[in-house]
């Protein structure tokens, strides 16, 4: 008896949503409230309380450096979390123990609100805890699906991103008020309580999760394949050596760049030149490693090129909590309205745009014959970030001319930047997971997060570069302020990156690495 394709489709069971998903979503909503609750008031607190001993003309630059150094740490430590989960402990235990560290960091912020060493220790613990779990929670979501119900995965990733912004919205709205009315101990203590709740929710679902065990040491891992290729010598090894020389020079400039930017730049140089060198001669690793491992390493290197081109987006996006807050301070607004409260517009728009895109925009474009792929979304999102900063730069020109500018005008750059965020970040979570081989889910997702670290590194390097005599002379001759010039620079940076991303994406071979 022959079963027709139609009958197979008729009798195939409908894909079911994994019942453990609500625990992960609830955990993420509370954790994001805790993170954005402290992050969105950090610049204001630094400017008005912790850094009052810094001369006023230097305080703004110092606050921005502390903020972006903290963000660099948050998105650097995913490398540690991904490695520990993939190699030793698995995702759930790693998430749980880093969450405890995270809670301790919040406690330090609330207790040491008048002590720079104690407060910075809290920032370090939060960057370690938040960064350690960051690549794992989104990868943990993907682990709950298989090929039978993977059609629901993108919807859950959208819901995952929606709940992130739900928590961020209320944190952005209420934390500035708590800081003003009740002081930093309450304002930093409330996010700490939410992180404790997040940890308890995660723990409550421990018996329901689908656990992917740690893979242990892998003799054919990505790094070992790359190292074998580079050891073979040749032009690729010479290119990699240039990266090492550049990294050593970067570390020698710690006095000029400070420790964190110098170390991050050294890492970028080693990864960039080392990856380029290995890509030229990966075939030299065949024999020492199976073809599957070599082909997997080539796929990862292709993926890292795309991730590198996303970094300019994060340069622009994360400055909404520093540069845009400082710009809002110069704008006219109601007396009760705090500049940092403007950030609540970003998550509010995300919660609207995600369902609008899925229910209206993408189906409409599909009917028009335009296929909305993940890479097309991401390239468009990078370009929209550039447009947002053109708007911000124009507002800065009005302010520099002495005009009274209402804070309502700042909605324009926020709308453009948020639409770009939805296209890049929400899409990138599922894209990174789907392209990662099963043995590298946590690691690849951590490399996706590393793109945020590098984006914030560009901000710190730009702030250092703009102080050079040549840059100051060029800015003076332009007739624009330093802030306006930097805004237009970052806009151009993103637009160039978007064009390059589109060219590379056209040749990228898509993968499907969900479990069977």
From TrEMBL:
Keyword Cytoplasm belongs to the record: no
Q: What membrane topology does the annotation report for this chain?
A: Multi-pass membrane protein
**What are the top taxonomic ranks of the organism?**
Bacteria, Pseudomonadati, Pseudomonadota, Betaproteobacteria, Burkholderiales
Q: What Pfam family does this protein match (any one)?
A: PTR2
Q: Which InterPro entries match?
A: Dipep/tripep_permease, MFS_trans_sf, POT_fam, PTR2_symporter_CS
Q: Name one GO molecular function term.
A: peptide transmembrane transporter activity
Where, subcellularly, is it found? Answer: Membrane
Origin: domain of life:
Bacteria
List membrane-spanning regions: 33-54, 66-85, 92-112, 118-138, 159-179, 185-204, 225-249, 255-278, 344-366, 378-399, 411-433, 445-466, 486-505
* Signal peptide extent: none
Q: Which UniProt keywords apply?
A: Membrane, Peptide transport, Protein transport, Transmembrane, Transmembrane helix, Transport
| GO CC, alphabetical | membrane
Q: Which family does it belong to?
A: Belongs to the major facilitator superfamily. Proton-dependent oligopeptide transporter (POT/PTR) (TC 2.A.17) family.
The protein's name is MFS transporter
**GO BP: any one term:** oligopeptide transport
